[in-house]
Predict the structure.
Amino acid sequence: MMKDTMQHRLLQTTADGSHTLFVPGLDEHYHSVKGALTESEHIFINEGLKHSPAAAPAVLEIGFGTGLNAFLTLLEADRSRREVCFTTLEQYPLPAELVRQVNYPAQVCPERAADFLALHEAEWGRKVRLTPSFTLHKIAADFTSYRFAPASYDVVYFDAFAPEKQPEMWSQVLFDGLYAALRPAGVLTTYCAKGAVRRMLQAAGFRVERLPGPPGGKREILRATV
């Protein structure tokens, strides 16, 4: 049922000029319509990756989607010269023609357009070094049934569809598993600041902060730390 729903995805432009995708079957966007690029930079790069004290952070992303978070992470890894191993789970990869339409390279760093395509073209199921500072491991899997090795990651980008659209992605059992998968001082960030999500993160053992949301976007986001 979900696979059929995800077959139809429409390209849309958000308020900051960057693209997102709209899924009519879910009545849901992949990113904030207030600004896809602005949202990703703020929540996952500035409040997530840059907040991690790890010298060579292992990042886990829940939902590869358009590849925007991975692209921004690759660029930040190269800028900071901090080696990043980036693991991402995705059940519904984008078709190649849709990938080519997304405008992130043109907006962010036109000279790195080939790197954006390389993220999507990289082989699934194995680690692929795309730059000296960035290794990608794409896993075709259902997050709700995937089991992570304990203490394997330093940063989690929790970027699943909203709880009201995919409630099965937001459960106590899953947050407990992510807590166990993080190393000491590990960081999880998410755009969702709902009280129920905050309480589940706290019950898993995280210290949870409400932080200001991205400029022009959501009022608050959550950062959870081991």
